[in-house]
Amino acid sequence: MLKINQLNFSYNLKSLFEDISFEIESSENVAVIGPNGSGKSTLIKLIAGLLQPQSGSIMINNKSLEDYKRINLAKSMAYVPQNVDITFSFSVYDVVKMGRYPYSENLMIHDADGDRIIHEAIEKLGIEHLTERKFSEISGGEKQRAVIASALSQKAHLLLLDEPTSALDYKHQQEIYTLLKQLCRDEGKTVLIVTHDINLAAQFCDRIILLNEGKIIKNGPPEDVLQFPVIEEIYGVKVFIDINPFTKSLYILPYDLKDK
Fold first, then answer.
1. Are 184 and 216 in contact (CB under 8 A)?
2. Degrees to nearest 5, angle at CA 61 with 57 and 163
3. Which long-range contacts (CB under 8 A, 24 or more apart) does 246-250 make?
4. Rounded to 5 degrees, what are φ and ψ at 56?
5. How far is Cα 204 from Cα 28, in angstroms, rounded to an integer?
6. CA 215 to CA 252: how far, in whole Å?
7. Which of 29, 115, 207, 241 makes an SS bond possible with 184, Cβ 3.0 to 4.6 Å?
8. What is the rounded distance in angstroms from the CA atom of residue 45 to the CA atom of residue 82?
């Protein structure tokens, strides 16, 4: 589904990635974790086509990212950034409807199939009560749910999400990660999530890619990546790692900073 091969990227003459390579299969739910400045958001922007690598290749469905027309790429891949700031007076419904732009030259034209897809996305994100509200007037967490709904209405197979739950409370964090896992399982979606929340990644994701200083340190199932020496060295913090008795997934608690 997604193949990254020997990706190199520099910014202001500083190398951020050197020969990054990995693959994500169809229907996988993969998290990218790492400390601040490790390159997580830069990586997902490269995959989304918002930044251009110096060398290397990004393949989606065995086709180079460079060979996609923008409208066709939007049908294959949806990107949810960390923050969305829309200054015009769009309603929440209008924002969700924007996800349908690859399928219509004019979003004002009635699209019966599009209407159904939009309403399904709104229902999945639990924002029915917000549809008539102005996007600029709702909370940060509500905005994030609306933007994710817009990505779902895009009907792309690959979903790229950069910190999708950073503005959400515990309940809605769980709901979003549960939904993404269900989309992979039931609809065959492929999900790549950038997150700082290691515990959510461990609970809901099939695989974790650990980045540090532009390099892949570990890439594998949560139990293989989230190990004491690796986490303590990369994050510079002592951690307690155990099995959550309810979810049966790993959970990590920091308890002491190095060089305090």
1. no
2. 75
3. 247/203, 249/199, 249/202, 249/203, 249/222, 250/199, 250/202, 250/222, 250/223, 250/226
4. 95, 180
5. 11
6. 22
7. 29
8. 11
Distances, alpha carbon 32 to alpha carbons 119, 218, 235, in Å: 30, 10, 14
Beta-bridge partners for 106: none
Are 205 and 24 contacting, i.e. CB atoms less than 8 angstroms apart?
Answer: no
pTM of the shown model: 0.91
Q: Which residue has the tokens 């209405």?
A: 153
DSSP state of 51: S
Positive or negative: CA dihedral 184, 177, 209, 207: negative
pLDDT in tens, 44-65: 999 999 999 999 999 999 999 9
Is residue 5 classed as helix, strand or coil in its secondary structure?
strand
170-187 helix and 140-153 helix, angle to the nearest 10 degrees: 10
Which residue in 216, 253, 215 sits closest to 237, CA to CA? 253
Condensed to tens digits (0 to 9), the pLDDT of residues 192-216 reads: 999 999 999 999 999 999 999 989 9
Cα 253 to chain centroid distance, Å, stands at 23
CA distances from 212 to 17, 31, 37 (A): 10, 14, 8
- Identify the H or E element spanning 78: strand 77-80
CB contact set of 103 (below 8 Å; sequence gap of 6+): 75, 111, 114, 155
